[in-house]
Amino acid sequence: MRINVSRTALIVCAAAAVVATGGANAVVDTADVTSPVSQANGAGTPAVSTGDDSRSAGANTASGATGTSPSATATGNTGTAPGAAATGNSGTAPSAAPAATASPTVGALFSGGNHFCSASVVHSPAGDLLLTAAHCVSGDISGVTFKPGYHDGIAPYGTWQVTASITADGWKSSSDQDLDFAFLKVAQPGSASLESLTGANQLGTNQGFSHTITLTGYPDGTEQPVVCTGTTTQSDTYQQRVACPGFPDGTSGGPWVINQDPNTGAGTVIGAIGGYQTGGATADVSYSAYFDDDIAQLYNSAIK
Question: Which of 72, 91, 130, 147 could form a disulfide with 155 if both were Cys (CB 3.0 to 4.6 A apart)?
C-alpha cells in the first residue's frame, strides 16, 4: 500500500486491494499510541512461532468490511522514498471515528522529513530488528529512519537509523509479490535496545489463512496511525487479504498481528501490507504475502 514523496529516489508502497466479497467484519479507528512498554522476551521464548504448513491452492473469498477510519481522502498507495516505483492504491477512506490504541511496536519509516511506509518491531536476539514490505526499501536506505509509536510529531521512543535491509533473492531478482517482505536493522546511540523500549512481536510462520488480526499503518499526510480489526482470507496460493477500510498510501509494511496482548500491544505477526499489487488497488482491502518457510529463512539470515 502506501508511501510518501520526499526524496529524489523513489520507493513506493501500495496496500489495500481490489474488491472483496463475502463476510469479514472490520472495525477501524484513528489510534492513540500506548505509553512506553517494556516486553520481556525471556529465555526459552521462541523468536519464530510456527503453525501448520497447509497452503491450499486457490483463493477463498474475502469479506466486505464495515467500520470507521480516519477522516481523510485516501489517494492511491504510492509515495516516495528510496527505491523503485510500484503501483498504488486508490480510493476514498470512510469518515472517521477516534479512539483505538496502537501498539508501541509499530511505527513509521521516514525519509527526507516525511514518513512514507510503516514497520514493526520483531523479536530478535539483539533487539534491533524491524519488519516491513520489501517494496518500501528497494533502493538507497542511507537516509531512512524509524520512529516507533510516532504520533502528532512526537517520537516517544526516539528516532532509529536504519543500518541494513534484508530481502529475499527472489524479490531482488524479479520483485516476486510472494516475497514482498523485508527485515531492517536499526541503531541509535546508547545502550538500550529498541525492543527493550517498545516490546516486540513474535514472527509467526505457516499459521494458515483465516485469522482475526489487528492491522496498523501510517497513512501519508496524517500524524496518527490507523488501526483496524479484521478477518483474513486466502486470495492466492501464497497471498492473504483483509478487508479494512482506510488504509491508503503510507500504510505499506504495516503488521498483521494475532493474539495481541492488551497490556503490551505485542502479539504474533503473520503478515505485512504488501504482496499483490504491492498491497492492493484500493484503500479498503489490503494484501500480504503469506508468511511461510521463505520468511523464516530470511529471518534467520537477518539475525546472524
Answer: 147
Cβ-based neighbours of 281, under 8 Å, separated by 6 or more: 14, 16, 17, 18, 87, 89, 90
Given a cut of 60, whether residue 303 has pLDDT beyond it is: yes
Partners of 195 in beta bridges:
none
**Structural domain of residue 229, as residue ranges?**
27-35+52-303
Which one, of 228, 246, 281, lies nearest residue 94 by Cα?
A: 246
199-226 residue pLDDT tens: 999 999 999 999 999 999 999 989 999 9
Please tell me the total count of domains within the chain. 1
Q: What is the CATH number of the domain that holds 89?
A: 2.40.10.10
Length of the chain: 304
d(CA 198, CA 304): 22
Residue 238 lies in a domain: yes
Number of C-alpha atoms within 13 angstroms, CB side, residue 233? 21
User: Looking at the domain assignment, is residue 91 inside a domain?
Assistant: yes
Residue 179 DSSP one-character state? G
The continuous run of DSSP H or E covering 186 comes out as strand 182-187
3-state SS of the chain: helix, strand, coil percent to 5? 10, 30, 60
For 18, the grid coordinates are: 481490489
Distances from the Cα of 3 to the Cαs of 13, 70, 113, 232, 251, in angstroms?
A: 5, 17, 13, 23, 7
Residue labelled with grid coordinates 497452503: 55
